[in-house]
Write a structure and sequence with these properties.
The protein has about 180 residues and is of the alpha/beta class. The protein has one domain. It is about 35% helix and about 10% strand. The protein has 8 helices and 5 strands. Strands 2-1-4-3-5 form a 5-stranded parallel β-sheet. Helix 4 runs antiparallel to helix 5. The longest helix has 11 residues. The termini are far apart. About 40% of the residues are buried.
Length: about 180
């Protein structure tokens, strides 16, 4: 049986520069469906939420195949408010990853929407789809190279707890002063 690739839906809050917006570029390339009201996100989808207490893992694959994968595209300045009103689907946070986009290159966890979606797809075993959506951007393939070790490890994890344990080994330790 062939794997079913998740339907990807993104809520776009219209808070960014349309010329730099990864969501709008993915929409133009027909790789995501964009909605402009949170209520139009699929009810049972796996929703990427940086404030979730549960890490995304390969265990989320089946749900994403049947109910979809969703993201919220909003300014980091307004992220707290946006995710607070989200009350649907299976909320999941991404583990430790490093941005490769031109605005936040090298900054841990400050991912664009395309980086977040590609990471989720990769972790859940849809590696070809992750590469495909990143290929739309000049800098996109570098995201996978920069995070290869992390993504491969997370994609082999059994569940959310395993992902969190792996992440703990990747987060740089800062000296106590």
């Amino acid at each position: 049986m062939l794997d079913k690739i998740p339907r990807i839906t993104v809520y776009h809050a219209k808070q960014c520069d349309p010329k730099k917006c990864t969501t709008l570029k993915m929409k133009r390339n027909k790789v995501v469906e964009v909605v402009y009201r949170i209520k139009f996100l699929p009810h049972r989808a796996v929703i990427l939420n940086p404030f979730s207490k549960i890490a995304l893992s390969p265990a989320d694959r089946e749900r994403s195949e049947s109910d979809g994968l969703a993201a919220i595209d909003c300014s980091w300045v307004h992220a707290d408010d946006m995710f607070e009103i989200l009350r649907r689907g299976a909320s999941r946070c991404l583990p430790y990853l490093v941005a490769s986009n031109p605005v936040n290159y090298g900054v841990p966890t400050k991912l664009t929407t395309v980086e977040a979606l590609a990471a989720a797809l990769y972790i859940m075993g849809f590696k070809d789809r992750a590469e495909e959506i990143l290929s739309i951007f000049k800098w996109g393939p570098n995201f996978l190279r920069l995070n290869q070790r992390f993504l491969e490890s997370y994609s082999q994890a059994e569940d959310s707890c395993s992902v969190v344990r792996l992440q703990e080994g990747f987060i740089p330790k800062t000296p106590i002063k």
